[in-house]
Write the structure tokens for this entry.
Amino acid sequence: MDTTTVTGSAYDDAVRAVRAGGITADEAANLLIGRMTDKEILGLLDGDSPRLLLPFIPILLDRVPFVAGAVPRLGIPGIRFSDGGRGVVIGASTAFPVTIARAATWDPSLEERVGVAIGVETRARGANYSASVCVNLLRHPAWGRAQECYGEDPVLTGRMGSALTRGVRTHVMACVKHFALNSMENERFEVDVAVDEHSLHEVYLPHFKAVMDAGADSVMSSYNRVRGKYMDVNRALLTDVLRHEWGFPGFVTSDWVFGTHDAVASLEAGMDVEMPLRLLRARELPAALRNGDLDRTTVLQSARRILRTCVQHAATRDSASPTPTVIASPAHRALAHQVAAESIVLLKNETVGTEPLLPLKPALRHLAVIGRLAGRANLGDHGSSRVRPPSTVSPLQGLREALPGVRITSTTGKNERRAAALAAAAETAIVVVGLDQHDEGESVVTGGVDVGVLGRAFGSGPLRRVLIGLAHVASRFVRGGDRSSLNLRPSDERLIHAVAAVNPRTVVVLISGSAVLTEKWRDRVPALLFAWYGGMEGGRALASVLTGNEEPGGRLPFVLPTDAAHLPFFDSAAKAVAYDDQWGQRLLDSEGHTPAFPFGFGLGYTTIEHRLLDHTLDASGGHADVLVTNAGDRKGSTVVQIYAADVSLRRPVAQLLGFRKVTLQPGAETTVRVGLDAGPTLQRDPTTRRWSLRAGEWALLASQHSPVRWENAVRLPRTEGLIDQEDISDGQPA
């Protein structure tokens, strides 16, 4: 049974009428509102579950959808929420690689297929709304939830987030989060982000706009403050930018429980739904509406947004409900494997003897697999994005399946002497090291929460102080949160040194959700791969890449520096931060630091060359035609990346404009067209809100990673003029 509609109800009749073209979704929303009581209308604006369920949210989140705004009398199903950045959190579902791993594929078409799979499994679990699209920028890799984002670049983030959105909403409503400037975890409830107009609109918001244009149905506001105001009451962003400047027609929800700070002011600012329980609004809105502190038109405006969006989506999706057989189906497992393989980034592959160390040679007889993570299916964070698949495959299991005739010895590496002995006895050693849910992730308990949402007794006084104090103390002892170091654990670094010292054929596999510094040991090992949190099929995918059955298709979605000091200052305890346009690869470029591995970098098992043939670019977008040739002796892939920079600067700062993944047979060549996003070359006038070309001498370059040298770049002609926001292309290929 489809739990999201009731056949023959007023809601079902409205959906059928919109589907048939008899009325618009706006008209349907008005008809439904006209049949609702004030209590039912106000009920649309918060969750349906009582606040007593607050302690049980972690238990219920993986069992049932959380419902907001259901009106059974009229058959209105409400918003039936599921999280799902790497798969559906309800039940045993397909666990895909984490979002940042999928960013490393640089393949929007593949990401759209992941979105379709997440969407259909979400609907099969009885939900109609998925908060699966996270497009916050990775401003610093110490951010605990880095694994939930698409990396450091606005264009890459916008393209991949848009693709996931298109896929998800073929089956359920797609929610994008966390709006806006949310990129630190430990102080997410308190931190105030200061940001100038240029950085806000030209760096931190364009990818949100791209996802809106891709059809996102809903936005989740973030916990943090921006320019002194919490996001739920930040009218400047929720209404002036999101609704008025961008024309977003959908609805906005709060982040959960502690994301609403004022029942009336948040509604007036443009935050439509308090999630997920009946908390502040249930207590305060009825009286505010009765005594005139809340304008009825404000209530109806939010109610209309919610119902219009729900009806419109129900009318345009397939009316037939998927069966539970789609969940973790063979097709979805195969997709999870493909994504994991294409996400793996080969960072280093030196020649040992006469050939590169990887892929492993067919004549291999004895392999040592070492490390505390080798025998674990390490899926990533255990917070709200956690997925519990019906089965998992560790790197060790994957290698044993892929190499049935090879002797494989293994140890956790806790005993370094034993690990060195095993490595010395083997022909090749693979060391699997990195992070897990204890090192990074969502901070399950965080100090600084506004406990006043729990009731008037917690609004002030000793009870409030005690509870906040306990939260601060507890936050020091729970897993996850922001990272305190970008290095591996000291035990992992010692293990790498011990193994590499006795076996010159050592491969290091990094498991992590963001950047790991490699300077203490990188020169000791000939081969290095970044394998992320690879999902339920990650172990098999890793084995297929190590053995050469599949190509390492990944490219870095962030820069790997040689020193943490080359990145922006990061204080996980900060109550106030300032964001500018200098971070990641851009900061290294502007300060002249050479990275260990640049943004966009990744090797393959073949040699692929490319050459820019032609291009067109103006303020509305454009394209570049690139000749790509596989000069090697095996099938392989590359990501053609198009960058622009103001070459009049002493140190040009590369700006990604577009990219396209291409796979070629050995000896083959083809011409590919890459859609270009002009946004990084434009500037916005904060007074008129019009966009114009940024000053400077701009040049274009085709590259396989973020470039350092610009001598061979093609100069871009520049024509002065203004352009409206809606005329800016997102650079998608035709």
